[in-house]
Amino acid sequence: LNYRRLSHKVTFDWGFDDRTDFVEDRYEAEIPALSAIERAGYTFDGWYEDADLSGDPVEVFQMAAEDRTLYAKWIANTDTRYVVEHYQQDLNGGFTLTDREEKKGTTDTSVTPKLKTYAGFTVPEVQEVIIKGDGSTVVRYEYTRNTYTITFAVNGGEMEADAAITALYGSPIT
Prior knowledge:
Elements: E1 7-13, E2 20-26, E3 30-32, E4 42-48, E5 60-62, E6 68-76, E7 80-89, E8 95-105, E9 110-111, E10 121-122, E11 129-130, E12 138-145, E13 147-151, E14 164-168
Parallel strand pairs: 1-6, 7-12
Antiparallel strand pairs: 1-2, 3-5, 4-6, 7-8, 9-11, 10-12, 13-14
């Protein structure tokens, strides 16, 4: 008496970008777990039979009597690069990079980089950003120049023009 074992499918759920792969084989066949692929900002920590990634990782899977799914576990790297840039407003209204800080943090977590204080400039609103796994996160803080008004007291003298000048911090006064 000969019989042919039924084939079933094991789906490998990578856990990001809706990416899956699968292997189809006969019941009780041994299926080696797929090797890890690259995922920016993460370290692969094995394949698990439960979607909650509990228990021990599976290294060799014995084909079950039904279709099954194995789930990839990823651990966020704690040394993912991000950059904080501080720009000061020019007298012509543009912005010039003043300070640049290379930082590290945990992938896909939020950070709130600290602001700096510069004499004559207004501090911008603080930003909260998520650290991207590919290291491309850049926080840009723009510090605007303060405007000052100088008022002249002529003490009984005469002045042809207005008795006040309004100018940006750092502007030449003429």
